[in-house]
Amino acid sequence: MNVIEYIESLLTQGHLQQAMEKLLEISKPTYYKKHSIKISSNFTAYNNATGDNKDSKRGPLVEQMQNLLENISDEISAAVLSVDYTQELAAINAASNNNSTTDTPETSSTSDSPQGKTQILFLCANPDPDALLNFDKEVNEIEQSLKRANFRDRFDFRNKRGVTNKIIRESLRDYQPEIVHFSGHGAGEDGIIVLDESDEPIVLSTFALDVLFEIEKENIQCVILNACYSEEQAKVIKKHIPYVIGMNDAIEDSTARAFSIGFYEALGDNKSYPEAFKYGKLVIAMDQMPGYDIPQLLE
Question: What is the per-residue pLDDT for 178?
């Protein structure tokens, strides 16, 4: 199964996120790179939508992805086409059977907060379209960490990309998460970077975060700010939330992802938040990543 057949299968089986990630990857060296980034923005809008609005966006999005795949098929190198994706598709299907992640249309019977499961809400914002793949990698690695875990059925992982202030408020109300994970850029003492309604970067202030988590503190047990220089925001949020993780310096994307892998591997194996934090730092050390002392746990 070559990459074209692989993406076609992903689209047919409803694995839209994986299909989008692979389309972004293979379109990079082609004329259609900008087209893929635009479609990726449409995927973000689809992913952030709910209910009937999400259902209405799905058909046009799949059609755009199929058209892009058809257009770039003649520009894909022989080396890329020679890679066999049979096992990768089988692994995705096996994982989805254990913990469904396919992008299927929502119905009135779909529950956004399955009873008895720990809700994890992953929020990310980056004004640079070329950075989308970094977020995709982090999301994929978190999902895979949870899927391989012994207690994977206890977790429900949701992610929202290109978040605005409105999306953050709505997501916290809709999903009532126990864990809130923000991945993006920090603005030092001022706050963290999110997007406005025109996809331009703005600062969500430290004061606003203080007010937000004071209001939403009922269900949330842990907040992870996987963003550079986010320790000041972590200190403010800690007034309301039992466990908060922030970064005391700039952190490389690879180090941030390594920390996430270890944290969720441990959490999925029924470890406590402090233990999961230690596992996150363990992966940084074992993978010889820089910045071992940058993640900080406030408890």
Answer: 95
